[in-house]
Amino acid sequence: MSIELLAPTTEVAEPPEILAEPRTLAHRELRRDDYWRALPGYAAVDADTFHTHTFQTRHTVTNVRQLSETLGGLAPESFYADVVAGLKRAPMALRISPYLLSLIDWANPYEDPIRTQFMPVASQQVKDHPELRLDSLHEQKDSPVPGLTHRYPDKALFLPLDSCPVYCRFCTRSYAIGGDTETVEKLKFTGRSQRWEDAFAYIESRPELEDIVISGGDTYNLSAGHIQEIGERLLRMPNIRRIRYATKGLAVLPQKILTDHPWVDALTRVVELGRTLHKEVVIHTHFNHPNEVTGVTQDALNRLTERGITVRSQTVLQSGVNDNASTMQLLVRRLSYVNIHPYYVYFHDMVPGVEDLRTTLAAGLKIEKFVRGHTAGFNTPSFVVDTMGGGGKRDAHSYEYYNRESGIAVYTSPGVKPGTFFLYFDPLKALSEAYQLRWQHAGARNEMIQQALAEARRAGR
Ligand SMILES: *Cc1c(COP(=O)(O)O)cnc(C)c1O
Ligand code: SF4
User: Fold this and answer.
1) Which domains does the chain have, with CATH numbers?
2) Upper half-sphere CA count for residue 312 (Cβ side, 13 Å)
């Protein structure tokens, strides 16, 4: 190597080429056209009406009859039949807001990332991995009182309700959320006020608890009064330092932030009370694709920003939705642009009925490498696997062992459940035919898993 190459350069470097490319600014292009008018059911609806939470909730589509009434001839008959058959085998019922429905590209619904997340089609469903379980995360096993999951030392998950403004196909809580379907009879969170009291009493009785995630269901479906009641109750507990309201609402019905004033005011009062008590109150939301961030999202986030409300987002990595580097980069940039901090990207949980949505660990790890370094570190999400069996979230890169041929990854979680191994399985469709075959035999299956565990034990020594 020549000496000159090592000498410090005095030349001023050109700015990196990529800064000048228009595609690097694509995250700023937020839709503000009247996209809903392309749907026959909404053709006559003006913007002022469409962008209200009352229109959105009143016209939410919950069955295929309403879907075909809204879309008319935009989708072929065969598509509706495909959805009907898909719903028969799905763990989640159909529920989609007019806003989301209008953001779907109806010229190509089979490939559309929003359709893929909210409407099952039988023609794309695949058989479950043999190791899948309902409540794969052991949320019910880690519940000291119904509707409260306490797995980590200082934080707990409070589930005050079991409904949501939409139903996502990939929902981890398909054991509880939404109405019964043909394949899943749901656990019902009944006897609400006593159950809430039990949860509050438990939280107050555990001095180590500082951080409460209020989830569900979805806190968008709590009334203004309940938002305030839960928030104040928790903030007044001396042990509680941080609360987060979890809602998918900003991604599926951002109009509520602009038109449901009592709800936003209630939330603001809780945030202000938190500030007075020197405690943190934030929103955690959930976006999966850049198409879900529009002009109305930006308007809603501007409103929250004016009120000093911090919003973070988590994403679920899904095949055909966001499992490529450029989509994930665009999502992260677009969220950051409207003041949402990308927090997590979850590998798809191992839940039944949505195997077509899962990706391999390898695919997600590769995407992570493209996302990290793309923008500010505090807007760079961690890619995590929420382990089956209650080990909690693990940095996806931190596996003890990963065999890309059998698709088995082994994690440990010494801070949560020391001495236990946790498994993640790649979807079978991504494996070679020989390995797909091995997974069909219980004996071979067990052998592969035991071997992976032995390798992980060896690696850990
Ligand atoms: C995800 C989760 C939390 C919150 O975890 P963070 O990593 O702090 O976001 C708390 N409790 C349970 C049971 C969870 O699954
Ligand atoms: S909004 Fe959240 S809890 Fe509700 S169905 Fe979707 S993923 Fe599940």
Assistant:
1) 32-124 (no CATH), 148-398 (3.20.20.70), 399-461 (no CATH)
2) 18
